[in-house]
Amino acid sequence: MILRQRFKFEAAHRLPGYQGPCARPHGHTYHLTVSLDGPINAATGMCVDFFEVDRRVREQILSRLDHADINEVLTNPTAENIAVWIWGALKPTLPELFEVELFETTESSVVYRGA
User: Fold this and answer.
1) Which of 12, 21, 76, 84 is the most buried (most CB within 10 A)?
2) What angle (nearest 5°) sits at the alpha carbon of residue 75, between those of residues 72 and 80?
3) Which of 60, 75, 77 is nearest to 26 (CA)?
4) What is the CATH number for 42?
5) Domain residue limits at 88
6) Closest Cα to residue 48, out of 102, 101, 90?
């Protein structure tokens, strides 16, 4: 069973070494989709409790990135690097983690499924 949950956060960043407008500080409304893969637990009827996923994403990710300067967390905060960082922060507490999709704009996203 694939379980997906979406989140939204606001953050600023700049891309060091990038030649273009993103080299300057600017912000995005990021949309994050976290996907988990696992069997349905016969006792609960769930793969993973949505409330538990929400709690862990808020503790591990949103508490550090929402309304933050992502350059204070990552030295080169491209969408790709942010997705890898999110994976690394969530995987230890959500072993069923299958995929992270991060939308930097409504039209542009990256998908990361672990190394």
Assistant:
1) 84
2) 110
3) 77
4) 3.30.479.10
5) 2-112
6) 90
